[in-house]
């Protein structure tokens, strides 16, 4: 019989060698004769708790009660009862004596008395934590008494342990027995076989007298309700109960709990308060901590309105609750709810706020894995919230996670139909780009940015230029040479949106160290100089500063080359590249700008003017003197203010380009190679003049010999300075072949031949001919007919 019981108790092991756990240091206190020790699993090193009970013989009464406790703990399961993992019974002998030990392995816990000393809670936070803990134990007792018809018989401070998430759990089931109040045949025998293990101070009067008849006639909860009263007394007095008379002292019991405390300790068993009624009516349990945790535990039963309201209040509420409970209990609940989809998007704000209270190591373990999984969510609200707060956790992302797990999901937002989401995706690259590989930067990100620079929304075009200037330092040299000048001059400087042109000028200044003297002189300065007559005063101011900066670079290069330095120094840029550092600060403050669109608009007027630097300027002075409003990110209020070229960006939804834009024919181009000027809507007269001048070749036209003047008298004296000369109307197409040959023969000598009037002829011309800029005004129809008749008669 003993071997059978031993096999039932032992579980999967029959000896200590078969116990797959390592036994560590014991705690200073435990219930009864048990020893509570720390332990770890031999498989994965996870922490556990190991309870051990030893006896000298197989008939030891403590061992018999211990076997009862093991059996009950294995079969009774409840969230507020200690979780059983493993058990075994070991027999050892030293030659003269035999020792039998029972081992129980459970989830990692520690005695409640030691945990209270460790937390050191005071005042309101202590009362809230005690209320939550008592609420848990009362639910466990109610489950045993009302649902299972079991009697624990020894509810006290030592029978409660605390988990790593600070949950209180009931254990010590050695005395646990069925309540047989309906068994009339056993009305004279003891109902609790091991009641002798219970201390006299914890026994109600009927149990002290062993009045089993009265006990059987009493409700099932009578004995354990008394035990709850003992637990409350020990909890608030902080000492172990010495004798029953101490329960009459109520000076330390909270007033909201006192009436129920007295009903729990009623001298009449039938009048004692049921633990289930205690949970429903006790005013002491109605506090913020209990309500918050209870809401989180039944989150799936709440509707969307209740969830949204709760999570919007949670960040503020979390500051008022005990910090350790928030981090060890609320935070895991919140992370789990977000990961499995039961929490709304506003919960992410609360999660990040709680995560900010953790150390960097704990954040990477408890919060970061949940955030990485959320990037794959199909809930647009969740993804928007992640992008809005990416600056709070972006630094914790490793390069591998950002490149392989985060970016593929984020990149789908570049082609989203929502302009707001496209802009958020663009801003998030400020955090992610430094962690991306060169393959991802050149093969995917730059292609998306190339399309966004011609987006239909002017704010997105402006922010794309700002971002490109900021991530230039993370690109390799070949990509920078191929992309930057084309992106800033051909596109940004010719944008119809004035803040976009200003952003292009600033980006050129901030990346000045990446251009050699030839590029500055032939490609950058000719495009920047024409912006000195821009209609927008702020763009003009930035253009003047940029011209000063780039001329200073060329001057420094001239001085070095003239001083005898090697020819390799002809590519010298700024020595310290202060512009790059300035752009980092500018783009950071701009791209991370928070607030409502109306608030952002007030900081970025279309025609804001700033102070213009006087005297010589360098890169840092250029960045410092430019007015802040125009370099801030453009808010959504601008998105419909200005005409813009049609965006080629795909807008087919979320998941179309998860793996990036396909590379046609294996090309490595990123969108800016051999770029052609954009087909903008018809600009204003002044802006058209600027764009026309940018398109003119830099080389000087050949001088026209004075001996072959072909220009009509109507052409102004300074026609060669006219910015529109390169785009004038072509020569008339109705001229006779002989005349065309003459005109073409003189083109090499006369640059204006293309727009000069054709040579006079005696033949009649159609009315549509002769409309070049140098032709004579067309006479009236009546006069033309008279001339034709005269010519006919002469012939």
Automatic annotation (TrEMBL):
Q: Which stretches make up the Protein kinase domain?
A: 2-285
Which SUPFAM superfamilies does this entry report, sorted A to Z?
Answer: ARM repeat, Protein kinase-like (PK-like)
* Compositional bias ranges of the Low complexity kind: 728-743
HEAT repeats: from-to residues: 367-405, 524-562
Record InterPro entries:
ARM-like, ARM-type_fold, CIK-Related_Protein, HEAT_type_2, Kinase-like_dom_sf, Prot_kinase_dom
The GO molecular function terms of this record are: ATP binding; protein kinase activity
UniProt feature, compositional bias: Polar residues: 598-624
This protein's superkingdom?
A: Eukaryota
* Region Disordered, annotated ranges: 558-578, 595-624, 638-795
Please state what the protein is called.
Answer: Protein kinase domain-containing protein
Q: Which organism is it from?
A: Daucus carota subsp. sativus (Carrot)
